[in-house]
């Protein structure tokens, strides 16, 4: 298959290599760039005060861990949670054991038994600049004291959507690997509206039911929900599609 890889550069490179090893011919076009977040200098203080740390993405973990390494600090011995397996794996790489739900969404995380009784606990959420507030608002309603730390910031490369779309069509693009609702919205904004019927007929792999619902509402027809946003999960979902 000829899938489109749009995730940020480091993960895009790893995913592209994995896909080629399994006989696919991916097209690489990172639609999002990540840089160190402005809140990172506050991270040591926030960690020292936290009882629970929650990461909403692999980037949140990677930038936080790199900052701690550069400053000679370590992760404290407290409870760690990740929204999905990819984020939990990033914690594992940093030497931290983190719990994560089978349902890789904010809703799945909030359903974990360990996060039901959090009254009086101090929760630190590692994320990018902006994003959903469901985790924070729900935990606050359960009595937790919630703080954010924007460990990274998102930037969108300035692409010519018309030129990119023509290139993808000429290359025979047949599938899309989209790892977040944000990347889905970016792709929809980038591809000219008159080309949306072509786009909606590509096979779409997404990491969660929430993103699948967004895609269906937009007009996508062929949607597969992977078991999370990890490169391995995306690969497995594409392999299943190839065998159909």
UniProtKB/TrEMBL annotation:
One Gene Ontology MF term: uroporphyrinogen-III synthase activity
Q: Which keywords describe this protein according to UniProt?
A: Lyase, Porphyrin biosynthesis
Annotated metabolic or biological route of this protein: Porphyrin-containing compound metabolism; protoporphyrin-IX biosynthesis; coproporphyrinogen-III from 5-aminolevulinate: step 3/4
Tetrapyrrole biosynthesis uroporphyrinogen III synthase domain span: 14-235
| Source taxon at top rank | Bacteria
Q: Which reaction does it catalyse?
A: hydroxymethylbilane = uroporphyrinogen III + H2O
Which Pfam families does the record associate with it?
HEM4
Enzyme class (EC, first level): lyase
Q: What positions belong to coiled-coil segments? A: none
> Which SUPFAM superfamilies does the record cross-reference, listed alphabetically?
HemD-like
Under which EC number(s) is this enzyme classified? 4.2.1.75
Task of the protein: Catalyzes cyclization of the linear tetrapyrrole, hydroxymethylbilane, to the macrocyclic uroporphyrinogen III.
Query: What protein family does this chain belong to?
Result: Belongs to the uroporphyrinogen-III synthase family.
Annotated protein name in UniProt = Uroporphyrinogen-III synthase
From which organism does this entry originate?
Aeromonas enteropelogenes
